[in-house]
Amino acid sequence: MGRILLQGGVVLSLDPQIGNLRSADVLIEDGRIASVGPYLDPAGAEVIDASQMVVMPGLVDAHRHLWYAGIRGSGMNAILADLVAAQWGQLGPAFTPDDVYAFTRAGIADCLDNGVTTVFDWCHVINSPAHAEAAVAAHQSLGIRAVFGYGGSMNQKVREMAGQGDANDWSHAASLYEREFAGRRGRLTMALAPQGLDYTTLETTVRDVETARRLGMPMSFHVGVPMGGKPKESVRRMAEAGLLGPDMSFAHCCDITDEEVKLAMAVSAHLVSCPIVDAALGMGSTPTPRMRHHGMRPCFSADSVTATSGDMFEEARTGLLLDRYEASRLSFAEGIPVPAFAGRMTAREALEAITIAGAEACWLDSEIGSVTPGKQADLILLRATDFNLWPLSNLEPAVIAGAHGANVDTVLVEGDVVKTSGSLVGVDIDVIRTEVVDARNRLYNTSGYDDIIPKDYR
Questions:
Q1: Cis-peptide, bond into residue 391, ω within 30° of zero
Q2: Helix, strand and coil in the chain, % to nearest 5
C-alpha cells in the first residue's frame, strides 16, 4: 500500500478534535490515516491533487439489501403490502445463487461509485446455503468494506409478514462464519439478521440471540414497520427478557417509543432510520426526532433501491428535511410559525448520520467514519468545482444541500484507490451490467413477474 498524500484539499473530517480545514493534506501509510494538516511532507508518497476537492470520510450505509440492485425502482409505485406480494412473493423465491451473485455485485459497484465505502448488507434472500455462499463470493470479488448480514429466505419472509414466522436454522450460517470469518480481520465481516420479535416468538428470538452470541456475531433486526395499530415494542420486550445489548442494531424504527430509545441508549444498542423508503412505501414516520430528543445520534440508511436512488447524500438530505418537518408540524398544529431554529436537526448531524453514526451502527467506529489519524483510510473526494457545490461557502451546509453521488471523483478503501477521475478501478462495469441484466431477465421470466423488460438493453 505504501504512502499516499491527498494534497491541498478541503478536509471535512467529522472529527471534532480536527474540525474542518479549508486547505490541508491527508497522509496515508499502509492503509491507515497517518496525519492530517497543512503542508505535510510528500517524500516517498504518491501525491493525489485534492486542491479542488472536498476530502471526507467514506459514506456508510448501515442497512441495505444489496440483492435488490437488479430490480431497481420496482417499488416506486408500491406500498409495503405490494412489495410482499410481488417482489417477495413472486420474485424472491425464484432467486438462484447466480442471481444473488449478479445482483449483489451490481449493488456493491453502485455503492462504491457513489462514495459508499462501507455497507451492512442485510441479505434475506438466502433461499439455500448456496445463496449465502454466492453473496459472500460477490463481496469477496470487489473491494468494499461490508458487514454481511445472514438472514432468512424469501419464503420465510412472506410467512413472517403473514404472522407465521418459524424458527431459523443457523447451521450453515455458523459453519460459514467459522470457515470465513472467525478470528480474522478483513474488510468483510459477518452478522446475523434474525426475524426479531416483530415477526416471531420470544422463544425463537432467544435461540437466535443465543446463537449469535455463542458465535461472537453481532445482530440486526427489522422493527417498527409498518406503522399502524398498536406498536409491537420489540425493543422493550427484548430488554425485559434480558436480551438487549450493544451487539444489536434495529432498522426502520418507525413506531419506536421514547422508552425504547432510552432502553437502547442505556445498553449502546443502535437505531437506524431509512428515511426515503419508509416514506415512499408507506411504512412510517422518521424516528430521528425521538432519537435526538434523548441524545442519540441519528443514523440514516437507504434500505434498498426499490424506492430510492441509494445515494446516501440524498438520504441525509431527506432525513434532515423529514426530521425538521416533524418538528415544524408541532408548531403548525398549534397555529403558530416555527419559533426558532434551536433544537432542529443540523447539516452536521445529517452528515454524521451517513458517516460516523453509520460506522457506530456497524460496530466499526474505532476504524472508520471520520478523517482521524490511526483509522482506516476509507475516504472519498468530491469535486468542489461542480456547480451544485461551488463555491462551497459554508462547508457542511453546502455538502448536505447539494452533494450527490455524481460529485464523487475518488474513492479509497483501506488506502486502495477503487475509484479515480470518476471511474471505478479494476471493475469491469460491462461485465457487471451484462450479469445483472441477464439475471434479471431470467428471474422475471421464471417467476412470471408482470413487468416490461427491455430485453436487449445493456
A1: yes
A2: 40, 20, 40
Phi, psi of 418 (to 5 degrees): -105, -10
Q: What is the mean pLDDT of residues 93-98?
A: 95
Query: CA-based angle 81:84:88, to the nearest 5?
Result: 160
Q: Which segments within 113-268 are labelled E, that is strand? A: 116-123, 145-150, 188-192, 219-223, 248-252
104 burial via Cβ count (<10 Å: 0-12, 13-18, 19+) = buried
d(CA 438, CA 443): 9
DSSP state of 47: E
Which pLDDT score is estimated for 153? 86
pTM: 0.96
Task: Work out whether the CA dihedral 443, 446, 449, 455 comes out positive or negative.
Answer: positive
Structural contact between residues 258 and 271, judged by C-beta atoms closer than 8 angstroms: no
Which residue, 107, 143, 48, 112, is CA-closest to 422? 112
pLDDT at 162: 73
Q: How far is CA 308 from the centre of its chain?
A: 13
Q: Write out pLDDT tens, residues 285-294.
A: 999 999 999 9
Distance separating alpha carbons of residues 152 and 140, to the nearest angstrom:
21
Instruction: Write out the E strands in 30-65.
Output: 32-37, 46-49, 53-57, 59-64
Q: In this model, does residue 232 exceed pLDDT 50?
A: yes
